[in-house]
Amino acid sequence: MMFQMKGCKAVRGLAAVAGANLAVAFLSAGAAFAQAADFVIGAPRPNQMGLPYPVTPIAREMNFFHDAILLPIITVICLFVLALLVIVVSKFNEKANATPSRTTHHTGLEIAWTIIPVLILVVIAVPSFHLLNNQLTMPNADMTIKVTGNSSWAWTWTYPKDEGGGFEFQARLLDQDTLAPGKLKLLDVDNEAVVPVNKTVRLQVTADVVGVIHGFVIPSFGVRIDAVPGRLNETWFKAEREGVYYGQCSKICGKDHAYMPVVIRVVSEEAYKVWLEKARKEYAQTESPVRVADASAAR
Ligand SMILES: [Cu+2]
Fold first, then answer.
1. CB within 8 A of 126, min separation 6: which ones?
2. CA angle in degrees (0–180, nearest 5) for 226-231-234
3. Residue 82 and which of 12, 25, 288, 294 are 20 to 30 A apart at CA?
4. Mean pLDDT lowest for which of 12-26, 36-50, 59-73, 207-221?
């Protein structure tokens, strides 16, 4: 009875710690929100804790999954195992326990330490599969952009003609020796990709056939997908806040792996139209051969 009461107290203590952890996670998310009242700079901040500020439904679901489900479970398990270790070390050493028990089996305990981890995994699996399904199910997209990790360690952005584009351009890291004030080191590029806010964007991601595998990542969008030569991978995002969002190639792809950031600027629909008009003229010399197929024709 005494042991049960002690155990109960310990569980309550663990729950309190997990709750505090959760509160910290939510507070830090709130701080990011307050900091980014108007325009989000989707880049890492000094002393940042937690995941990047989420601006898409998928990224929010990822943050929830991490902050509200994984983190508390991990915290409770770590503290539980630590408590067991402390008990074992303090109670069952030679001095404190000179004549050890000869017990080698305990059926109830063995069933419990098999079943409980399985239940924990099931609890994790349900929201995990839900998230995975949402990531992989393509919604009806408002627009399409093709991104190619090219063999000169830069990203080529292609805006299809059918959707008002018909051009492509390369985004290259700015010269780090002549970086203008306010520009982010190893993140800002010469030509940012631009998309309208609150629109579902289908991203088709690939890499040069003569190149290597790259990893296309925008943490604030919850987007992470491989850019593989000869394969057209597909993902999507719907950015709900204007801002400029940064990511970096996440595959160890070659000598300039560290110098090929991904930058997307999310603007209002009017600003996007203005940019599209300007970009069409600016990048006209590199007209894109990409056309978006009409999906209804294939049905
Ligand atoms: Cu790369």
1. none
2. 60
3. 25
4. 12-26
DSSP 3-state of 248: strand
Asked whether the beta carbons of 41 and 48 are under 8 A apart, the reply is: no
Domains of the chain (ranges, CATH numbers): 2-95+108-136 (1.10.287.90), 143-291 (2.60.40.420)
CA of 206 to the centre of ligand 1 (A): 11
How far, in Å, are 5, 95, 97, 102, 161 from residue 106 at the CA level?
A: 21, 25, 20, 12, 70
| Alpha carbon of 219 to ligand 1 centroid (Å) | 16
CA of 75 to the centre of ligand 1 (A): 34
Nearest to 146 by CA among 213, 231, 210, 221: 231
Q: Is the pLDDT of residue 23 over 50?
A: no
Separation of CA 148 and ligand 1 centre (Å): 10
Name the phi and psi angles at 196, rounded to 5. Answer: -80, 150
Tokens coding 17: 């710690």
Distance from residue 233's CA to the centre of ligand 1 (Å): 15
Sequence-distant (6+) residues with CB within 8 A of 264 are 192, 193, 194, 195, 218, 221, 239, 244, 245
Q: Characterise 180 by phi-psi region: left (phi > 0), alpha (psi -120 to 50), beta (else).
A: beta
The pLDDT of residue 293:
60
Q: From 142, 139, 146, 150, select the one nearest 58 (Cα to Cα).
A: 139
E strand or H helix at 236: strand 233-238
C-alpha separations of 256 from 43, 131, 154 in Å: 20, 32, 9
pLDDT in tens, 86-105: 999 999 999 999 998 888 89
| Percentage, residues of the chain above pLDDT 90 | 77
Q: Ligand 1 centre from 246 Cα, in Å?
A: 14
